[in-house]
Amino acid sequence: MLAHLRSNPQTSEKAIQYFDKITKLVYNHGPLGLFRPFKWLWFTARGWIQPTPREPISLAHMDVWAHKSTALACQTFMLAMRAEGYDSCPMEGFDSKRVKLLLGLPRRAGITMAISIGKRAEGGIYNERFRFPQKDFIHEH
Ligand SMILES: Cc1cc2nc3c(=O)[nH]c(=O)nc-3n(C[C@H](O)[C@H](O)[C@H](O)COP(=O)(O)O)c2cc1C
């Protein structure tokens, strides 16, 4: 990211600072996670005075962060596939150990989802599509 941003003379100093300083501060937990208690103290103390991002601190937070970002990329991928005339199906419930072996991923890798892609088939779905009421999901204040 930094190399790409720096290669463009029009990149603002703010953008470079974000990837050079802020992300390193926010996503770096130090060797063996030693910075974590200090980060918690800092976030908590600062949070008393002003709005402060509270996460990520723990490994679980980082896991959520990674899966969240990846899931957005998955959605973009599925929308792009639809635009090209293909259908997709995001899936879980697969043998993650075997998938990692198949793709040559390290054991500690986490898989967000598997996505099958194909041409829509007549009667290819196992149930009619349905949507729950929008008001159950979107709240305005
Ligand atoms: C991360 C994720 C995993 C899913 N895993 C499965 C699955 O293993 N098997 C399945 O039948 N549907 C699974 N679903 C649900 C379907 O893929 C699909 O989202 C659902 O049928 C709604 O389709 P629609 O948006 O076209 O209505 C999963 C959905 C998501 C987002």
Describe what you observe in this structure.
This protein has 141 residues and is mainly α. The chain has 2 domains: 1-56, no CATH class; 58-121, no CATH class. The protein is 48% helix and 7% strand. It is built from 5 helices and 2 strands, in the order H-H-H-H-E-H-E. It has helices at residues 2-7, 13-27, 36-49, 59-83, 96-103, and strands at 87-91, 114-118. A two-stranded antiparallel sheet has the order 1-2. The protein starts with a helix and ends in a 23-residue tail after the last strand. The model has no long low-confidence stretch (mean pLDDT 93). It binds flavin mononucleotide. The site of flavin mononucleotide has 7 residues, from strand 1.
Q: H/E series, N to C? A: HHHHEHE
- Biggest β-sheet: count, sense, barrel? 2 strands, antiparallel
Our Rg estimate from Cα atoms comes to: 21 Å
Q: What is the number of domains? A: 2
Identify every distinct bound molecule in the structure, by name, code or SMILES.
flavin mononucleotide
Low-confidence runs:
none
SS field, number of helical segments: 5
DSSP, total strands: 2
Look at the structure and give the mean pLDDT.
Answer: 93
Approximate shape: extended
Sheet with the most strands: spatial strand order: 1-2
Distance between the termini: 36 Å
Bin the helical content.
40-55%
Strand-pairing-aware structural class: mainly alpha
Please indicate the percent range of residues in DSSP E strands (runs of 2 or more): 5-15%
